[in-house]
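Entry for 2'-deoxycytidine-5'-monophosphate complex. Fields follow.
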Amino acid sequence: MVIAIDGPAGAGKSTVAGKLAQKLNILHLDTGAMYRAAALYALEQGADPADGRAAEALVPQIGVTVEPSAGGQRTFLNGRDVSAAIREHRVSRAASDFSAHPCVRRKMAALQREIASALDMVLDGRDIGTYVLPNADFKFFLTADLEERARRRASELAQKGCPARYEEVLEDLAQRDKNDSSRALAPLKKAEDAIAVDTTRNSADEIVGQLAAVIKDEVGRTK
Ligand code: DC
């Protein structure tokens, strides 16, 4: 079973995908973490993440691997655990820019398809239902008001010990939404056959309950 959860930053995809995977006892692949690791490499090499030519040169040097762990996915860049480093603010911005290059997307999408071909899985990202796995068994598109997404992201950052101003987070999310939705290859977009879920006024557990009910109904119907 493959479940695709797409949507903009801060809509709760990662939390919901993790909890849903736990409930169904299958794995969760956070594809954003893979783009973040790739972008971290560009930053470490002193490259401008928005520079397409630099991306072409760097992509063959980038090895991203993931491992499930009790506390969530661990992400490795050329064998080094970068799970904490990729959450830095500068990496969020860089990931949005770096992921726009077709050479980066093709490499990460191929890797994601390979990982998902082996096991039942919940994948969260921007283009899972439209581009990476258009034949996914279930497709959900999570949204939430920009202000609510910014509040969530700001409190998440504060909890992680790297507080940021609400206004700055809001501006950053708006910029990333624009970037992620306007790139040429596989932009952030709801798949026509995805179920849209507005998470603005619901807790992650409530959303997980909704998605699990849809899955259970469908599985029951087709049995
Ligand atoms: O989900 P996230 O915030 O960790 O993702 C970081 C960036 O990576 C996001 O701004 C766009 C990019 N991304 C993407 O282009 N496609 C995906 N499937 C996942 C993330």
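NOTE: The chain has one domain: 2-214.
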